[in-house]
Amino acid sequence: MLRPYIIGVLSQKGGVGKTTVAVNLAVALKLTNKRVLMVDADTDNPAVGLHLGMEDAKVGFENLVVDGASLANVVTVHAPTGMHCVLGMLSTKPFQLTNTHVKRLVEELERCSYDFVVVDTAPGLQQEEDMMPFDEAVIVATPDLPALTSALRLGEELKGIKERYTLTLNRVTGRSYELRISEIEDAWGGKVTVAFPEDTTVSESLAAHTPAYLSGESSPFTVAMKKLANACAGKAGGASQHGPQFANWKRLSGERERKESEKISKIAAEALKKEEKRQRALLAEKIEKERAEAESKAKREIESMRKKMEAKAKAEELARKAEMKRKIEARKQVELRKEQAKELRKSAKELKTKGKNKAKKRSKLKKAAARKSQKNNRSKGAAVKRPKNEAADDGNKSLNKIAKARADSLAWGLSPISEPAEEKEKDEDEDDAEAGGASQDTNEASPSPEEGGEEPGGSSEVET
Fold first, then answer.
1. Which of 258-270 are b and which e, b meaning 16 or more Cβ less than 10 Å from the residue's Cβ?
2. What is the secondary structure of 253-281 as a DSSP string?
3. How far apart are alpha carbons 438 and 365 in whole angstroms?
4. Contact 116, 108 (CB under 8 A)
5. What pTM was estimated for this model as a whole?
């Protein structure tokens, strides 16, 4: 099966009439009874639809190379000529044509049954591996120095990828300020294929959205375009196999795929390394966290144990101090009790001695009183007899009671009982009174020796 002959219409500089040449070349080839497909591959400024009056297309080039639609589903037929077109939609946002898009387009074009495929490309240079392979590239320029310089640069680029290319000039007026064709051919290093003269028919047809080639066979532009179409028409059916430019494109495409594959593999390997590194970091972080938690737990347990031991030691120390304090207090109490008992014994001894002294004093006073009473009662004949030590016994009993009470209070932890002040004062008052009375009675009753009285130390019946 013969594949179509693919013609690419290119320009390095915009505004030179590239789309005009591409559209009218496709129409001219179609009118030679060839099966022609017009492809608008200008992704920056698609204008083929404007030249053909088909600017309202709903599907087109982007659906083919980006969305993966089949060629048959994106083809629109130009009614006046019957030419098939893959249009660029004006509503589509500009996008960069990549190697993937080019591969998709080439695959579809290799399976189609057209004789010619004319491709209108975007102006400017593209990366070598992203440039479409053509059987022939028609470079369009104008006869001025900027356009020629751009065409020379584009020619060098195509020469490097072994692309077959020709140079055509557009809008030639022959005025003195233009570059002459001979000068352009000298700079180009070859012949100019076709020179399209400046023709008002082109501007009028563009305003009418009709190809200029259909405006009339006698127009200078139509005559020149027929020459270009005839030069290309004989090449239809002669592209049974891909030329060197396709082989070079496939080589570049393969290298691009290999580079992309290597790049993807490298990215995947780096991602794998990063993931392994991240996993190791996470594992190390987890281990470090667990270690830190274990250390923290061990520290807490040690601290808790230390606090418990300190609390226990403190409790034991407090208990020991309390026990020591209790023993000291008990010892003090014992010493105090001993001192109190000693004081009590001393007080009891003093009281006993004092009681004895009082008893003796009372006894003397009573003896004196008894002598006086005997003296007074002799006349009455009554004799009063009293036990010799009765008063002393009463005093001893009183002292013994006080000593016993003090000993009992000391035994029960009470303060020693001292002799009541009132009773003590009472006893002293009684002693003083008795002493005074006895003295008075003695003075009154005791006769002087001249009166026949007895000596103080004499005996009496009471003493007996």
1. eeeeeeeeeeeee
2. HHHHHHHHHHHHHHHHHHHHHHHHHHHHH
3. 6
4. no
5. 0.56
Q: How far is it, in rounded angstroms, from Cα 26 to Cα 33?
A: 11
- pLDDT tens-digit series, residues 316-364: 999 988 999 888 988 888 888 888 888 888 888 888 888 888 888 888 8
Q: Check residue 275 and give left, alpha or beta (phi > 0: left; psi -120 to 50: alpha).
A: alpha
> Which of these, 462, 452, 351, 358, lies nearest to 406 by C-alpha position?
351
Indicate the DSSP class of residue 115: S
Q: Beta partners for 229?
A: none
Rounded distance between C-alpha atoms, residue 230 and residue 235, angstroms: 9
Nearest one of 113, 127, 124 to 34, comparing CA atoms: 113
The answer to whether 48 touches 177, Cβ cutoff 8 Å, is no
Nearest to 22 by CA among 8, 35, 12: 8
Q: Contact 3/239 with Cβ under 8 angstroms?
A: yes
User: How far apart, in whole angstroms, are the C-alpha atoms of residue 28 and residue 26?
Assistant: 5
Place of tokens 């966290």: 289
Residues 6+ apart with CB under 8 A from 377: 383, 384
State which amino acid sits at residue 336: L
Residue 219: C-alpha distances to residues 200, 208, 213, 222 (Å) = 9, 16, 8, 5
CB distance 353 to 423 below 8 Å: no
Distance between CA 136 and CA 5 in Å, rounded? 8
Q: Domains plus CATH for the chain?
A: 5-242 (3.40.50.300), 265-451 (no CATH)
Crossing angle (nearest 10°) for helices 390-411 and 244-378: 180
User: pLDDT for 61-98, tens place per residue?
Assistant: 999 999 999 999 999 999 999 999 999 987 767 888 88
